[in-house]
């Protein structure tokens, strides 16, 4: 099993219950909308997952394209947003068919850690082609070298206490301890990037980058970077 196969399953326990999932997507949407350029704009959410707040984000942006690498997630998004005038769910062929310079902003949240550096650099070229000159790339939830699992646990428990699902979070952590996620994290690991590496990668692929004041989402031990397509 690799990370793509893991996320293609419907039995992973990343979200401990429905409230956790709801609050996670709401927090992400709030943070994202504060960072986006003024609408109207065409936003591509790359690695969107189930996109619970897609309609609210689309209402703000004007147009939203959703892409996730997991085929089962792609299929679910296409069913949910079939016929929507403002939201387009993309499969791999749809993504490849997007016109150069057709996207104003791209969000990539909590994705880079599941990819190799070579894969990330290849994606930067794809995003550079898709973005309009001056378009914005937002890389969120980037893990810095030396980050420890304990930090993620502490952050989750703080979010759970604030959101009223602490007992479920404790139960979910116990499930995760025996899960494929933990085994994959130990076997394959997660990719990490320090600020200078991210800046060098962005510059090498035609972007000017900066570190955002805070990370998108509840885990402030991770980092969000904002880049402009040159």
UniProtKB/TrEMBL annotation:
One of its GO terms (biological process) is methylation. InterPro entries: Methyltransf_11, SAM-dependent_MTases_sf. Gene3D superfamilies: Vaccinia Virus protein VP39. One of its GO terms (molecular function) is S-adenosylmethionine-dependent methyltransferase activity. Residues 44-139 form the Methyltransferase type domain. Pfam families: Methyltransf_11. Keywords: Methyltransferase, Transferase. This is Methyltransferase type 12. It comes from Beijerinckia indica subsp. indica (strain ATCC 9039 / DSM 1715 / NCIMB 8712).
């Amino acid at each position: 099993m690799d990370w793509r196969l893991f996320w293609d399953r419907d039995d992973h326990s990343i979200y401990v219950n429905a409230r956790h999932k709801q609050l996670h997507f709401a927090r992400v949407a709030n943070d994202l909308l504060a960072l986006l350029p003024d609408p109207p704009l065409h936003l591509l959410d790359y690695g969107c997952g189930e996109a619970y707040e897609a309609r609210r984000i689309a209402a703000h942006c004007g147009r939203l394209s959703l892409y996730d690498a997991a085929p089962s997630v792609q299929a679910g998004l296409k069913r949910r947003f079939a016929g929507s005038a403002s939201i387009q769910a993309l499969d791999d062929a749809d993504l490849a068919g997007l016109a150069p310079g057709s996207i104003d902003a791209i969000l990539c949240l909590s994705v880079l850690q599941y990819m190799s550096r070579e894969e990330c650099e290849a994606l930067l070229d794809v995003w550079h082609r898709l973005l309009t000159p001056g378009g914005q790339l937002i890389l969120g939830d980037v893990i810095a070298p030396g980050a420890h699992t304990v930090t993620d646990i502490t952050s989750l428990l703080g979010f759970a206490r604030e959101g009223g699902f602490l007992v479920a979070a404790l139960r979910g952590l116990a499930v995760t301890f025996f899960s494929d996620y933990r085994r994959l994290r130990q076997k394959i690991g997660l990719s990490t990037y320090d600020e200078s590496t991210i800046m060098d990668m962005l510059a090498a692929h035609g972007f000017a980058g900066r570190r955002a004041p805070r990370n998108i989402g509840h885990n402030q031990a991770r980092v969000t970077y904002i880049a402009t397509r040159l």
